Amino acid sequence: MLTPDLIRLLLPALIGLPVLAALVLRLVDGSRARMAALVLSITHFVLTLAIVASGMLDVQTDPNVSSSIDRFKKKAEQIFAPQFVPGDPLPGGKNSYSTTYDIIAFHGTNAEGERVKLGAAQFFIGLDGLNIWLVCLASFMLVPVVLYSWDSIRDREGAYYSWLFFLQAGVLGVFLSFDILLFYVCFELTLVPLLFLIGGWGTGPSRRDASRKLFLFTLAGGLITLIGIAGIVLFVYTQSGNGNQPRELTFSIPRLADLVQANLSQSTSESTRELWRSTQVYLFLALAIGFAVKVPIVPLHSWQPGAYTEAPTGVTVMLSALLAKMGTFGLVRICLPLCPDATLSVGMPLLGVLGIIGILYGGFCAFAQTDLRKLLAYSSISHLGLSVLAIMAFSAGGIAGSVLHMVNHGLSTGAMFLLVGMLIRRYGSAQISDYSGVWSRLPILTGFLLFVSLASVGLPGLNNFVSEVLMLGGVLEARNSNISSIAFTILAALGIFLSAWYTMTMLRRVFFGPEKLPHTTEPVKDLTPRERFAVAPIAILCLLLGVMSQPLLDVMKRDVVRLSQVGDEARVRAK
Amino acid sequence: MLDAHEQLLAVPLLPLIGALLCAVFGAVKELRSWSHVPAVVCAALSCVCAISVVAQLNQATLPVTFPHIDADRIIWFGVDAQTSRLMVEFGLSADHLGGMMLLGVTFIGFWIVVFSIGYMKGSPGFARYFAVVSLFLASMNLLILADNMILMFAGWEGVGLCSYLLVGYWHHKHSAAAAARKAFLVTRLGDVGLILGILLLWFMTSQEGFEYSRFFKDVPGLASSYPVLFPLSCLLIVLGAVGKSAQFPLYVWLPDAMEGPTPVSALIHAATMVTAGVYLLARCTPLLLAVPGVQLTIAIIGAFTALLAAFIALTQHDLKRVLAYSTVSQIGFMFLAVGCAGPALPKIAVVAAIFHLFTHAFFKAVLFLSSGSVMHAMHDVIDMREFSGLRKVLPVTHIAFLCGALALAGIPLFSGFWSKDMVLEAALEAGHSERFGTIYLILFGIALTTALMTAFYTFRAYFRTFWGPLRMPHGAHPHETWVMNLPLIVLAIGAVLVGIAVEPFTHWFSGFLSKAPFLASTPTPEHHLNWPLILGSSAVALLGLAVAYFMYVKSPSTVDKAARSVGRVYSYSLNKLYVDEIFKVLFVQPMNLLAGICSLADAVVSDLTRLVASIPRGIAVTIKPLQNGLVQFYALSMVLFVAAFIGLLVLFAK
Predict the structure, then answer these.
(1) Which of A177, A293, B450, B462 could cross-link to A221 by cystine, CB 3.0-4.6 Å?
(2) If we measure between CA atoms, which residue out of B71, B87, B225 comes closest to residue B149?
(3) What ipTM goes with this model?
């Protein structure tokens, strides 16, 4: 067990190690690069496990933060309580939920004309209930990706793995950061390795086109989000200085959230409250667009099927399992606490409806696909549509279910893409019509794929069922007067049928029926031991999380409940 | 020894362990041919535990629970916020209804597993078969014992999965693959309704938990405060039951599901899983009593399905399909009985449904197993046009089938007679009620007609298979082995005796079931024998038998004549009323079309973005020639523009 001080010391290593690995891997090539990548990714996972296992309890039961708020005390409350923040000014392992590690400091002059520090963008990272499991996922998923790429990537391995680690560092940065600028920088930085990976090692003929599309979409969305971020920081800065308090220029997400909350519900003047409330709508829309592109939410999804198909399979797994979650996570971490009223008034009617459209539209599109990877790409749109809807519901069940679903969906979709990649490599085709009766020839691969497909369609006992029930329950208790939560739930539940529909149809076409020989000349063999090692842990996790997900939910409970209370207060204001 | 609570846990847990062991056995080459052992042993032990639990229930009035009522609850998953409680617990509870179901499932399940040893011998995937069957028993027991509806749903989906895997057991066959997918998807349609119904109930009961007891606490209050939502949630639950129990319009998957190995048809698609819907409705009686309209809907669906399926069964040539349609029809009877609770006393209606479920499980299992024995002997041919006169070569099978057929047809004194009589009595009783009385009387008439048809098609199948001259398809090698005969004999005895032993004279069954908490508080009926009804239904059954005897034994030439004289009706029945085709046009094709449209729309969206992206490039392309690098051109254009500018200034300057 690591002590809290040690965890605090080690936490930057979660981002630092992949960056270091990326640099080291630049220097080696060939089989040594593969080996080094495997060792480094496993090391990183072990480190993450050690940190999470010893820090889990602190996240769950921080004595300084109660999970309930006292509405009558009108005391500024801690919405986010990041633990193990490196550079915490309080001595002796206590938590002040802030850091002293400045990256860029901003200075100004005070009334006396002296130069003073106004605020700073900081290296502010920490663990809390919302990000802890996503950090685990981001650390874990690289191992199967490296194992998968072992055979499939046979040129410039060093550079390939180096970019993969760089990508992982960016994703971890997004999940860990509590500074809004740091969050944004990491969010955008992931684009660079992606472009090189898809452009350099992509499999399809139109990979340049796909990567350009990805670049333009995410960059355009990201820039609008940057405007939103600048907007919220400057708005808080300009508005915070009333009364005898000094103006506050802060980039810290917890601080911003608390200030927003305090001004919304405790400000004495009606006009101030009104101003804060009306500004949110624009800020919400600006902030949400970048995240919506990343998820992606229909109709901003048209970069996604191309990118998923053209990218090398390992990168597709990273894209679907991790990068898509940066979008949904951004909604939870930034949009909900900073624009709570707008989430209810605009988020649910707009993004919620788009989420439902995504569930149905993605499901139907998935059914019509003739390409295996495209089918999975659209199924991802469908599944994440439910996730977005549940986040917008702004209820405890919805947030918990959605955060859990990010992990669950990452596991099951990641495994699906891996297995489909293995299948395509053997048969030399991604067209469903080129397959039939794979079961007879590849029973082990079939077994694994059947298993993760069942997880993905939400079979009870496997992981996705848990999060889907939580999300549907969360949508049902949305208590949002702008929409009919019952109609929303019924429409969203149709996704349960649709996912079974396209998945079972795909399984029937590919795995059942009389055997069809592949076009390739070499004999088709079942999974190699390395490939089994790549997918078996994911399959085991799917089962474990389906049976025992309560430990995960317990850890995230405090933060989920606290965030949902922000929603409850917004509901009171909306009346 | 285990105490009652642990025994209760053991009932679903043992088959689960069995499934894991079977899978392990299958992975090891030397053990592969022994992989039936864990399944058989665990099924037997689970049955013993179930019997012991029921024995304790016989004396008690309170349900047996796991964990113990004073012990801490086990949480499966959930979030407990101040405003709502979305908590799913792992709790098992056996009341008298659950106990009775458990007894049937584990007992019949055990014998069918034994039968499978002989039937599946030498087939590829021997271990897979027993692993999945064992998993099925575990899920079914969980479905029955769960004390909250999400856990019940877990079992519900689990049995659906096993059904999918077993229908598609011969995965290289197109028909099996199609049938497996169809079974999964059609039932899944109902499952969406079920989970929505559960969530809506949770929502209405102030979002506390999913236990049945919480849902049942204040039903009248619910019904009055949610006049639309409450009936809607009940209807959604009924939708789930309709899907799983293969009722109209979602019955279409069951006949196709006969692609699976025959013991599976006996276990899953006749005796246990398909009756889960009836169990669920019986379990939800406290809710349904508050919504008479929904009850009437259930009764109508049941009676209509019973008639429809019996009509189709009249002309089918595939022996297993006759039995499959007859299963659909018999479950229709159970639905009719459940739907009568309210107008008729619940202690009559619900007990009738469960009693029919119980006897049906025995006689339908024996019918399927003996048809499996026929199929085994006839080299996988099951078309009744290919064989006849088998009573001489398959004596044990013949007797077993006869016992089952007598029970199914409702011939007096056999088990099916007593339970069908109770269903009819419930319908008749409901017919005397004020509200909807006439409708229930019509339903009673339909049920009586169906009983006549049942007796006819059952004995049509029996006479065509076992009577007449001995004919067999090529490659047939009729034989019987003890491992298949023993289950046949046991279940045949059950089919004959289980009805008369437990109910008509002792009233043990209804007495036991009435102790279930949700029935205990309802009024108790007087036990009496309704002689006109008994005589009437006996006459109907004997008439059906006699007609079949006349047509298929006495003068077989009349069959063609009869078929020709009702030509169109005959072809409707033979072609299953074209329901599959209607479904294709109404449901499958629009879905496919919608998928095509969406995919097309997506291509358009994708191209639109391309178009938007090409605007900057287009502009660049148009103005690119201007930058041709010729200094003279730049100078000229500069001079021209300056001239134009000055000209504008001169013209418009004041």
Answers:
(1) A293
(2) B87
(3) 0.93
